[in-house]
Amino acid sequence: MNVRRLIPTAAVASATVLGITALSACSASSGDSRNSDGKLAVVASFYPMQYLAEQIGGDHVAVTNLTKPGQEPHDLEISAKQTAQLQDAGVALYLKGLQPAVDDAIQQSGIKTKVDAASLTHLEKHGTEVGGHAEEHDHEHGGEGGRDPHIWLDPVKYAEVAEGVGKAFEKADPDHAAAYKKNTAALVGKLDGLNTRFEDGLKNTDSKVFITTHAAFGYLAERYGLTEEAISGLDPESEPSAARVKDLQNMAKADGATTVFYETLVSDRTAKTVAGDAGLKTDVLDPLEGITDKSKGDDYIQVMESNLKALQTALGAK
């Protein structure tokens, strides 16, 4: 069994510096857009960006999420009301390449501080895995240059992004820089603790292979020495070929995979079909693109901990 290489744990400092340099060119050193309560108006493209903004901004920001709870973020179209919200915002926090409509709207807006989370860490290419070799799937839902945008599912990469966002907030709203710095440090501490729990929880398992309907967990798999076998590519709505389904059934037998994971915002039909044919179980592995009443937790940390428990069960953690 081939397990994909681990991502180095060292922070990608150069990428963070480049990201901050890029966003500082369009950031105002003084003056910003505030709401009626005097809070810095921040627009976030979808939940992982909203979580960062709220955790780092605290009481000093008012955050608007462009993606409604339960809405598939890849398919978001910007309304006239949301365009107006963008025009009034002081900071836009987004992940370039994930939501093309958001990218266009933000670039056309007059927002003073535009923070692209993808510029604050290093993106890689991921796809489905067949026999340990990646099948690349470049399509409209991928990140820049067909790279995997799901960086928030790796707590270490997410922490790198958090540090960059904190610096951007400090620059956009210097009057509250000390609070942003303190809140960023607290969030990074939470993410470091989450990373440790994942490392310890997945260190000793019967299998290192897990099957998903959507290739969203490539960064998480690499971080913790696992192999993600995705039924489809980076696009959660794409249908698998008959050959791909047969490959997965053969792989499940060879590598001891027990479970086909599906996600909360997409139909479980494909997962149940593949699992039924192969005699496997199904369970939820949440890509955290949004929090709904179906989510196993109220925020990023809680849902990620639920994901860890699901993986431990499926992989036979000791």
Characterization of this structure:
This protein is of the alpha/beta class and 318 residues long. It has 10 helices and 10 strands. The strands form 3 sheets. It has a 4-stranded parallel sheet, with helices on both faces. A 4-stranded parallel sheet has the order 8-7-9-10, sandwiched between helices. Helix 9 links the parallel strand 9 and strand 10 (281-284). Helix 2 (47-57) packs across helix 5 (155-172), helix 2 (47-57) packs across helix 6 and helix 5 (155-172) packs antiparallel against helix 6 (177-201). It starts with 12 loop residues before the first helix and ends with a helix.
Write the layout of secondary structure elements.
Elements (H helix, E strand, L loop, with lengths): L12 H12 L15 E5 L2 H11 L3 E5 L14 H9 L2 E4 L5 H9 L4 E4 L10 E4 L2 E4 L18 H18 L4 H25 L7 E4 L5 H6 L3 E4 L11 H14 L3 E4 L6 H10 L2 E4 L15 H16 L3
Parallel strand pairs: 1-2, 1-3, 3-4, 7-8, 7-9, 9-10
Antiparallel strand pairs: 5-6
Helix content: 40-55%
Content of β-strand: 5-15%
Spatial sequence of strands, sheet with the most strands: 2-1-3-4
Report how far the terminal alpha carbons are from each other.
20 Å
Concise synopsis of the structure shown:
The chain has helices at 13-24, 47-57, 80-88, 100-108, 155-172, 177-201, 218-223, 242-255, 269-278, 300-315; strands spanning 40-44, 61-65, 91-94, 113-116, 127-130, 133-136, 209-212, 227-230, 259-262, 281-284.
